[in-house]
Amino acid sequence: MDFLVDKVKDSIYAIAFWDTEWKSYNNCYFVLEEDGVIMIDSCKEEHSNYLLQALHHLGKTADDVKLVLATHGHEDHVEGAQMFKHAKKLIHPKEGEEIRGFDRELSDQGVAGEFDYMLAGYHSPGSVIYYHRPSRILFTGDLLCFFGDPLSEEGLVSEGKELRQAWVDYLKGGGVSTSDLPGFLEALRIPLHFQSEIMCTGHGGVLVGEVNEFMEELVSEAENQLNVETK
Ligand SMILES: [Zn+2]
Ligand SMILES: [Zn+2]
């Protein structure tokens, strides 16, 4: 199993597993604090042992994990959380009831510790975007991610110019279907509420810098697509 551990900023780390079955990087994130570790997403169950290795590498154990925030309920984002027995685990109640071990306490907009969050409801009904205020890092889950894409040549955490361009081109090429475009557009506007420096996604590259500029570019491209479709 190949996996990467890279510092995003301060005491925040990205873990990216190469999933040979899905042919994609699957990501999750650790925020190391004095009194424990907060995770954003937790990858698949089969990644659990590697999560422990990554934690160990950072001088922490499974018992140090105090909070797991799920961006949404797909298996590659929640299943690894099962082994963090002492952690509080939060997910939006609109996600599937079969998801075990999570408290379904999130509202449509709120605060969880140093995170602001908002329901995006795109990609899955209860998908949530988190914004970590102290670091100005945005966690988008699979609303906006790089599923199946290679990393930027500059590495996991980088400006990722070519990744950004690939998303714009994907939208231009009609990659998001007409029926999905209105919901996608609405969700794309959520990050504009925040002043993010860095965007961490559910799969692949972590983008550093000009996050809102990137969102605005995507919003305007999605608007173009909608106008084309409705003419
Ligand atoms: Zn997903
Ligand atoms: Zn995913």
TrEMBL record:
Residues covered by the Metallo-beta-lactamase domain: 25-203
Matches recorded under Gene3D superfamilies: Ribonuclease Z/Hydroxyacylglutathione hydrolase-like (3.60.15.10)
InterPro entries assigned: Metallo-B-lactamas (IPR001279), NDM-1-like (IPR050855), RibonucZ/Hydroxyglut_hydro (IPR036866)
PANTHER family given in the database record: METALLO-BETA-LACTAMASE DOMAIN-CONTAINING
Protein known as: Glyoxylase, beta-lactamase superfamily II
